[in-house]
């Protein structure tokens, strides 16, 4: 999945999720409201208050 990191209303980066964990276990998804750990592929300067917007790109063919 792709992730957009927003800080103070400004998009800081768009990156891919390298890993997602719930407790110490790998996870494919985490329900809203639950804590999790996210590792990004390229970006590591995450700060308190940053907002993650996750999205999935899909290609449609007619």
Automatic annotation (TrEMBL):
Keywords: Initiation factor, Protein biosynthesis. InterPro entries: Transl_B-barrel_sf. Transmembrane segments: none annotated. GO terms for molecular function: translation initiation factor activity. Coiled coil: none annotated. This is Translation initiation factor IF-2. It comes from human gut metagenome.
């Amino acid at each position: 999945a792709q992730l957009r990191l927003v800080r103070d209303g400004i998009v800081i980066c768009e990156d891919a999720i390298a890993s997602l964990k719930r407790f110490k276990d790998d996870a494919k998804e985490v329900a809203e409201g639950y804590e999790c750990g996210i590792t990004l592929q390229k970006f590591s300067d995450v700060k308190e208050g940053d907002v993650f917007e996750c999205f999935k790109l899909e290609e449609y063919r007619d």
